[in-house]
Amino acid sequence: MDLIAIAVPFFLALILAEFIYGIARGRNTYRLNDTINSLSMGSLSSLSGLVIVGGSALIYEFIVKTFQLTQLPAESTLVWVATFVLYDLAYYWKHRLGHEVALFWGSHVSHHQSEDYNLGTALRQTSIDFHGFLFLIPFFIVGVPGEVLVATVSLNLIYQFWVHTQHVPKLGPIEWIMVTPSNHRVHHARNDQYVDKNYGGVFIIWDRLFGTFQDELAEEPAVYGLRKPLNSWNPLWANTHVYWRLLIDFVKMKGIKNKVQLLFKPPGWLPADYTKTCKAAAPVDLKSKYDPKVAGITRAYVFGQFIITVVVSLSLAELATVASTVELWAAAGFIALSLFTHGYILDKRVRSTPLECSRLLLAVGLA
Fold it and tell me: Membrane topology per the record (predicted)?
């Protein structure tokens, strides 16, 4: 049973409900361009899962056959509870390393790019989560049943959805144990005292134990997004821009030691002799938001095309088991092109019109 697939319609309904609630209360936390971008990232993440699922299954089968020590009973309540708690501990360290190691930050950064904070932000996921699998290996080795682990990972992710909102205040004693909207708002903020805090997925106790907890302060409202803003609605660039910067620095940098440190030191690290040759970055206004002004009719067109793309994407998930590999990759490629084009238009790029015309012609050819 795919719990995430079951949850998606509820996610979308709750996003709509939050939008309506925000309008009614005079505190709307949504922008069309940002929301389309976040949902595009979620769609691409789902697509990447579809096209690599075969490879993941082969790796899982190899580890289980080669290294598994025992097989724990799937009907045991203790196995379920222990797996749920220990997976959240593993998630804490995966999440923390995703912020503190440049190579892993390149994967996780996409979740933090939004300068808004709402339930739509929760669906803003990476398409290149190559290191998350490493934290599942211990569970494979000790014999946690596959169905238990899949359900646990799904439930952990589903829980995290609801904490991405600005409309829920602090929740009293619950703040000490669980991840809540308040302490997760801190995690998404780019304020100096909020950066790299509150990594827990379900339980905030890990942050309290390991010294990474930060309370939300009334005198310091959270400002969301990256310290160095992405300034683009292109979901493909959002997934790859950190890796592109790492590649450029890796090639230019001298010395194997420096190259290795570049990948595994915290994001932004550069050796002293290299920084002297780099042009200083211009100061960034952390309270401003990227928001190119696009005509209302253009926004309506992009929204309509985006809805069509999402429907096609959801249909592809249903057809994945019967489609050939070539058909699956071709359909995924067209969906990725569509999402890229939507972002290109919202970015007001000069060549967006001919690109969109070419995409529509390609759609006719593929139909």
Answer: Multi-pass membrane protein
Are residues 37 and 343 in contact, defined by beta-carbon separation less than 8 angstroms?
yes
Q: How far apart are CA 27 and CA 21, in angstroms?
A: 8
Put simply, whether the predicted model's pTM sits higher than 0.85 gets the answer yes
> Is residue 49 one of the residues assigned to a domain?
no
Q: Mind listing the pLDDT tens digit for each residue in 106-131?
A: 999 999 999 999 999 999 999 998 88
Neighbours of 27 (CB within 10 A): 10
Query: Same structural domain for residues 99 and 205?
Result: yes
- Residues 343/232, Cβ–Cβ less than 8 Å: yes
Strand-pairing partners, residue 224, are: 189
Residues 137-182: pLDDT tens digits? 999 999 999 999 999 999 999 999 999 999 999 999 999 999 999 9
Whether residue 202 is found in the same domain as residue 126? yes
Residues 7 and 92 in one domain: yes
Full residue range of the structural domain in which residue 301 is found: 296-366
Does residue 290 lie within any of the structural domains? no
